[in-house]
Amino acid sequence: MANAEPLLVVLLGPTGSGKTSLSLALAEHFEFSEDAVLSAGEAEEANLKYLAGLGFRLSMDQVTTLDLDFAKLKRLGFEFVKVRASTLIYGMSRARALVAAEDFKDLLARNGINLIAERE
Q: Which residues contact 116 (CB under 8 A, 6 or more apart)?
């Protein structure tokens, strides 16, 4: 991502409500597009791991291909992938899925990732 916008900038500190940003992190989700994650370099991957280590929950959004390294996504801290329902119902082969639709959730579960089916 040499000339791209940064994935995310987060400043941690008191929030004024008496809670620290770290305690709020446990309730926060961050969504990153498939393109942003797949084009991330070492520095961006380190930042994703750091955010996950702080308790932020990471989700990959705008997923168009299912030929992903789900073990790597888990190592980066991702807990969720969001896939259009139409892809799951009609387009598994077009999305280059490695398994049949009925086995896809099991593949994700083996890698500790939850599936979110997105309405269109």
A: 59, 80, 81, 82, 83
Token couple for 51: 């955010």
Cα Rg for the chain, rounded, in angstroms?
Answer: 16
Containing 81, the helix (H) or strand (E) segment is: strand 78-84
What is the tens place of the pLDDT at every residue in 5-14? 445 444 444 4
Q: Please name the residue that has the structure tokens 């593949």.
A: 107
Q: Where are the domains of the chain?
A: 21-118
Q: Is 23 helix (H, G, I), strand (E, B) or coil?
A: helix
Q: Residue 28: what are its φ and ψ, rounded to 5°? A: -95, 140
pTM of the model: 0.73
Contact 7, 34 (CB under 8 A): no
Q: Taking a C-beta distance cutoff of 8 angstroms, is the pair 27, 50 a contact?
A: no
Q: What are 82's two structure tokens?
A: 């969001």
